[in-house]
Design goal:
With about 140 residues, this protein is mainly beta. The chain has one helix and ten strands; from the N terminus they run E-E-E-H-E-E-E-E-E-E-E. The chain is globular and about 40 Å long.
Length: about 140
């Protein structure tokens, strides 16, 4: 994983994702070729570091040392999910106020979003946050 806008493209480590603070926007990076997967905004993810004790079992399975990665693209109309409410530990899309719970697999808590944000399972390799498996669902939204 590489922070969006980082130059040079340095792999992210757990300590670069501050606990309980606003999401770090990132791109997946191929660990073998160091290719940053920024060719489509559907690859953009948000990283949060939270207390894993509060995670449901599904979220624990795709987290790495409390860091979770979710698609940054709202499932309603495709805006970037950028608002973080640390007091409630909820993510919010600023366009139409869909609210997601990152402790429970980014399920929809309120708003018009039709489905949860897909998770990108993580693991730690050589101290770096890396992709463990593909997204758990299709990132983005579906036009009617």
């Amino acid at each position: 994983m590489v922070a969006v806008g980082a130059s040079p493209a340095e792999p992210l480590t757990v300590d670069k994702v501050p606990p309980g603070e606003k999401p770090v926007m990132a791109w997946p990076m191929d660990p073998e070729s160091s290719t940053v997967r920024n060719g489509s905004r559907l690859n953009k993810v948000l990283l949060l570091r939270l207390d894993p004790e509060g995670f449901d079992s599904e979220t624990k399975d795709h987290a790495a040392e409390g860091v979770v990665a979710y698609s940054a693209v709202c499932t309603h109309t495709g805006c970037d999910v950028v608002n973080w409410h640390p007091d409630r530990r909820l993510l919010e899309c600023p366009c139409h106020n869909s609210v997601y719970d990152p402790m429970e697999g980014a399920k929809v808590v309120s708003g018009p979003a039709p489905r949860r944000l897909p998770a990108l399972p993580l693991k730690i390799t050589d101290g770096r946050l890396v992709v463990a498996k593909p997204f758990t669902g299709r990132p983005g939204f579906q036009q009617m």
